[in-house]
Amino acid sequence: MMIGELRYKDISEKIIGASFEVHKFLGNGFQEVIYQRALAYEMRKAGLEFAREIEQDIYYKELEVPIGTRRADFVVEGKILVELKAIIQLEDVHLAQALNYLKAYKLEVGLLINFGSKSLTFKRLVL
């Protein structure tokens, strides 16, 4: 990998392209689950493998029993965590949540995608 090259760039571009396709067709104003189903369809069409809403245990320090669980919207190609929102504007709390998911899932790259604004917005997260 060359310096400055984005990790999993090709996969990220396909996910973002699929997201734009969903937003172009549906616009904003639907519940998150609607976008999730449409994005699953578009990612399948793009030839991406993914798992939806995989439950991940959350551990605290050396405790052997999980203190809770979380579900990310998608893990794509086993490499990129994708968290969807359908809100007017992404805020720091949503970034923090997505970063926590990355740590919990032990992944390096994530995409936080918001379908709720007039234009599709997304943030690429790297641990």
Give the mean pLDDT: 92
Shape: globular
Termini separation (Å)? 17 Å
Please state how the strands of the largest beta sheet are arranged side by side: 1-4-5-6-7
What is the beta-strand fraction?
25-35%
Strand-pairing-aware structural class: alpha+beta
**CATH topology category name:** Lambda Exonuclease, Chain A
Proper CATH architecture: Alpha-Beta Complex
CATH class: Alpha Beta
The largest sheet, given as strand count, sense and whether it forms a barrel, is: 5 strands, mixed
Tally of individual domains: 1
Helix content: 25-40%
Helix count? 3
Can you tell me the residue ranges where pLDDT is under 50 for at least 5 consecutive residues? none
| Number of separate strands | 7
Gyration radius, rounded: 15 Å
Order of helices and strands: HHEEEEEHEE
Would you give an account of this structure?
This protein is α+β, with helices and mostly antiparallel strands and 127 residues long. The radius of gyration is 15 Å and the shape is globular. It has a single domain, classed as Lambda Exonuclease, Chain A (Alpha-Beta Complex), CATH 3.90.320. Helix 1 crosses helix 2. It starts with 8 loop residues before the first helix and ends with a strand. The longest helix has 18 residues. Helix content is 36%, strand content 25%. The protein contains three helices and seven strands; from the N terminus they run ααβββββαββ. The relative contact order is 0.19. Strands 1-4-5-6-7 form a five-stranded mixed sheet, sandwiched between helices. The protein has a two-stranded antiparallel sheet with strand order 2-3.
